[in-house]
């Protein structure tokens, strides 16, 4: 799979955004790091999939609640209400990207060491319920 230069920059921005969000949370919800992570993550998504697809992803009718919560949480983080903003943003993130969790879980189960751990009986059942794998129907 070949990526364009713009998509490579997008992957880097998403990675740095996730890193700064993680460090911001570890450092007791440092608002500056969280805000920087939000900006980098959002810019990276835009570069990765393109501006038009990004707009259509966030503007879909079934995703509007997640979009509003995600951007409202970003606004709260920018206003230095880091903990509340991250909670609202996490709710929006789960609503926006929750459909991808079963796909990610299936990918992780195919990895050599991690797949064995994720396939253990109790862990498998817990993660299946968490990802909602039984509730979604495949298009195929």
Using brief descriptors, characterize the structure shown.
single chain, about 140 residues, mainly alpha, about 0% strand, Got1
Commentary on this structure:
- The chain is mainly α and 140 residues long.
- The chain has a domain of 93 residues.
- Helices cover 77% and strands 0% of the residues.
- The longest helix is centred in the first third of the chain and has 22 residues.
- It comes from Pseudozyma flocculosa.
- One of its GO terms (biological process) is endoplasmic reticulum to Golgi vesicle-mediated transport.
- InterPro entries: Got1, Vesicle_transpt_Got1/SFT2.
- It is a multi-pass membrane protein.
Distance between the first and last residues' Cα: 23 Å
The biggest beta sheet reads: none
Rg from alpha-carbon coordinates: 17 Å
**What structural category characterises the helix and strand content?**
mainly alpha
- The percent range for strand residues is under 5%
Task: Please provide the count of β strands.
Answer: 0
- Total number of helices: 8
Overall 3D form: globular
What is the helix content?
over 70%
Low-confidence stretches: none
Transmembrane segments: 9-29, 35-56, 68-88
Protein name: Probable GOT1 - Membrane protein required for ER to Golgi transport
Keywords: Golgi apparatus, Membrane, Transmembrane, Transmembrane helix
Main location: Golgi
């Amino acid at each position: 799979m070949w990526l364009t230069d713009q998509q490579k920059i997008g992957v880097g921005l998403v990675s740095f955004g996730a890193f700064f969000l993680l460090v911001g949370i570890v450092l007791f919800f440092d608002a500056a790091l969280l805000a920087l992570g939000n900006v980098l993550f959002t810019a990276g998504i835009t570069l990765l999939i393109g501006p038009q697809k990004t707009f259509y992803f966030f503007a879909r009718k079934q995703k509007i609640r997640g979009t509003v919560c995600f951007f409202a949480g970003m606004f709260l983080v920018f206003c230095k209400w880091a903990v509340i903003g991250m909670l609202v943003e996490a709710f929006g993130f789960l609503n926006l990207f929750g459909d991808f969790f079963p796909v990610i879980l299936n990918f992780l189960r195919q990895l050599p060491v991690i797949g064995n751990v994720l396939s253990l009986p109790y862990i498998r059942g817990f993660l299946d319920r968490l990802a909602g794998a039984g509730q979604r129907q495949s298009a195929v």
